[in-house]
């Protein structure tokens, strides 16, 4: 790696563009009635999915706020640091995860059988992109420290830390 630090943006712009395109296409299909045949009819289930989807989207907003306003991630990347505290103790790729949570929550809240599978595809896409790019860079840069971090912290789904020492 020729720079002294990892790329600040990483594959973020590409992932967010793909995520936006997929989510926008799904929303357009929903609004235009293309997938109306798959609308969930049971009102109790639609309401439940609306609540769950809304909570997932709000969790995405909370993760995004934690990264952008609390972690000082850009400065830490430029300093060449492996960040393992704060929101990074809960998820290895919090910015991308936040966008994915927001999109997934929105799609779940629409209450359509076709769209319920979309979050799985979004997580799969995120995982493949991270393994092929940023995680490879991090392994090259930080070696065993990053390997140990990976054993303790989920890649894409925020979850309480397995090791209380990382908080």
Shape: elongated
**CATH topological fold name:** Four Helix Bundle (Hemerythrin (Met), subunit A)
Tally the helices.
8
What distance lies between the first and last C-alpha atoms, to the nearest angstrom?
29 Å
What's the CATH architecture?
Up-down Bundle
* CATH class descriptor name: Mainly Alpha
Keywords summarizing the entry:
167 residues, 0% strand, Four Helix Bundle (Hemerythrin (Met), subunit A), mainly alpha
Topology:
Layout: H1 12-31, H2 43-70, H3 73-78, H4 94-109, H5 113-116, H6 118-132, H7 134-142, H8 144-152
Characterization of the model:
With 167 residues, the chain is mainly α. It has a single domain, classed as Four Helix Bundle (Hemerythrin (Met), subunit A). The protein has eight helices and no strands. Helix 2 (43-70) packs antiparallel against helix 4 (94-109) and helix 4 runs antiparallel to helix 6.
Q: Concise description?
A:
With 167 residues, this protein is mainly alpha-helical. It has one domain: Up-down Bundle (Four Helix Bundle (Hemerythrin (Met), subunit A)). It contains eight helices and no strands.
């Amino acid at each position: 790696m020729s720079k002294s630090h990892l790329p600040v943006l990483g594959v973020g712009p590409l992932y967010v563009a793909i995520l936006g395109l997929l989510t926008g296409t799904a929303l357009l299909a929903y609004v235009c009635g293309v997938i109306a045949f798959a609308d969930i009819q049971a009102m109790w289930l639609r309401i439940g999915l609306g609540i769950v989807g809304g909570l997932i989207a709000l969790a995405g907003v909370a993760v995004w706020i934690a990264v952008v306003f609390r972690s000082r991630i850009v400065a830490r990347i430029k300093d060449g640091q492996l960040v393992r505290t704060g929101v990074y103790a809960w998820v290895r790729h919090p910015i991308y995860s936040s966008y994915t949570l927001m999109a997934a929550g929105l799609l779940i809240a629409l209450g359509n059988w076709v769209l319920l599978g979309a979050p799985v595809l979004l997580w799969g896409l995120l995982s493949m992109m991270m393994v092929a790019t940023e995680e490879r860079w991090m392994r090259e840069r930080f070696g065993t420290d990053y390997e140990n971090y990976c054993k303790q912290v989920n890649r894409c789904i925020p979850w309480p830390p397995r090791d209380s020492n990382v908080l």
